[in-house]
Amino acid sequence: MNLIFFDTPQREHLLPLVFLKPVATLRIGIFKIYEKWQNLLKVSPQQCSFLSQEYLSKKFPTVFSTDNWYINGAILPNKTFIEKLIHLKEGEALFTGDTLLALKSKKHFSNYQLLHETAHWVYTKIKTEKPPILEHLWDIFLLNRSQIVSDFEWIVQHKKSQAITDPHTVIYGKENIFVEEGVKIKAAFLDASDLPIYLGKNSTVEMGAIIQGAFALSEGSTVNFGAKMRGDTTVGSFGKVGGEVKNVVFQDYSHKAHDGYLGNSVIGEWCNMGADTNCSNLKNNYAQVQLWNFVEEKYISTGQQLCGVIMGDHTKCGIGTMFNTGTVVGVAANIFGSQQPQKYVPSFSWGTGNNLSTHKLDIAIDLAKKLMSQKDQFSAFDAAIFKEVFVLTEKYRKRNEKANQ
After folding, report:
1. Which end of the chain has less Cβ packing within 10 Å, N or C?
2. pTM (2 decimals)?
């Protein structure tokens, strides 16, 4: 069973989080999307690949076989949809409305357009109910609780939790806590009375930390001294989190290590938030929050009263940064100073408030190389992707500079 996770034009609604990667590599709940499929279909990582934008193809190549199952990479799998999928025959495709969900084919499709046209006009179309699927940025934090719960259910069925032996850690709902090997906990408060808490391999919960379920701490990550994790939150691998956090999804290698509030937000990979960074997630008039949308190229309503900050990969902000309600920051931006950032900060921006200039590409690449090389992850493919995204986002920086003149 060869799984190929394809991106549709809908991926543009998930920018800036997917400028540097396919949708199925996003983490939500405990696992990344493609890892959920691996678990449920019992396939190896070698049986999973991606069909996304051409500029991403060298880092995320498509691997074909004679037993290809093409799956929409934004789908969050559940048992109901899995049952529909595994009964597909060669040349059959699953649709909800005009949205292609999956198809089974021996053919090798090189892009989404060809894939969709073949599924729509040539293959047998099977209509099905819409599964959980990421359509907008805010879906990621809205669906995070249910995804932690469903991922946790899979884990406890297939693994045995390690014991918590620290005598000074206070535990509520022991049966809803799962601890992987190598976890370190000292004098913490864990409340899983109603919703689960997952502590990943070699993760650390430091003294005085308060964690409320639903919560997922991924491999190698740390909840810092005195931190307040208020539930529905995921911390990706090798990250650090402190302060007060509620309903936030951190992707891997990102840090919010110090005091400050962050709520109803999504933070990309390799981000760093300076000490006392805060965000507003509720407007003073309690109105629905608007977010910048890359498809409409304007602010659109989220339909949500609570929404904080969406931050693209490799972005940094300095100490004391104050994000307004519903702020979107692109990739590889560097924000600092006492002025509040504008509500849409284009990728590769550098500066404070409305006074933004273009972050030099070679400097941005050099910084990413320094950080990623710590994990032996930076490659020529990453540099090429940076260069492509720099060009793709140039119009937003120019438009922003003109508007602020």
Report:
1. C
2. 0.97
